Amino acid sequence: MTSQSQGIHQLLQAEKRAKDKLEEAKKKTGTASGKGKRLKQAKEEAMVEIDQYRMQRDKEFRLIQSKIMGSQSNLSDEIEEQTLGKIQELNGHYNKHMESVMNQLLSMVCDMKPEIHVNYRATN
């Protein structure tokens, strides 16, 4: 009987050790999955933070870009306005002086005064 009770006792101890090992394994896997969950959560939080930072920097970039491009468009508008003013000024001068210049050209061409050129030498 003692051998039977020793065998039962050993069997109970083996079951207890197996149960302890199972609980320990569950704890390890539980903490491992807990670590995995924490890592996953930390990764997600980091991604959210990165996205927020990226949006903030993108917003700042677009603001600076709009300031620069806005000033460039204002500059091009100003240059366009100056160009149109110059064209109008030149057209005004053309219309004002066209008649007198045409008359002067026609008189130079049509009114010929026969003269002997200064460099002409009479060979006699």
UniProtKB/TrEMBL annotation:
Listed GO MF terms: ATP hydrolysis activity; ATPase binding; proton-transporting ATPase activity, rotational mechanism
Cited InterPro entries: V-ATPase_G
Keyword Ion transport: yes
Basic and acidic residues: compositionally biased ranges: 14-27
GO biological process, one term: synaptic vesicle lumen acidification
GO cellular component terms attached to this protein's record: cytosol; plasma membrane; synaptic vesicle membrane; vacuolar proton-transporting V-type ATPase, V1 domain
Region (Disordered): 1-40
Cited Pfam families: V-ATPase_G
Family: Belongs to the V-ATPase G subunit family.
Subunit structure: V-ATPase is a heteromultimeric enzyme made up of two complexes: the ATP-hydrolytic V1 complex and the proton translocation V0 complex. The V1 complex consists of three catalytic AB heterodimers that form a heterohexamer, three peripheral stalks each consisting of EG heterodimers, one central rotor including subunits D and F, and the regulatory subunits C and H. The proton translocation complex V0 consists of the proton transport subunit a, a ring of proteolipid subunits c9c'', rotary subunit d, subunits e and f, and the accessory subunits ATP6AP1/Ac45 and ATP6AP2/PRR.
Protein's name according to its UniProt entry: V-type proton ATPase subunit G
Organism: Papio anubis (Olive baboon)
Source taxonomy: Eukaryota, Metazoa, Chordata, Craniata, Vertebrata
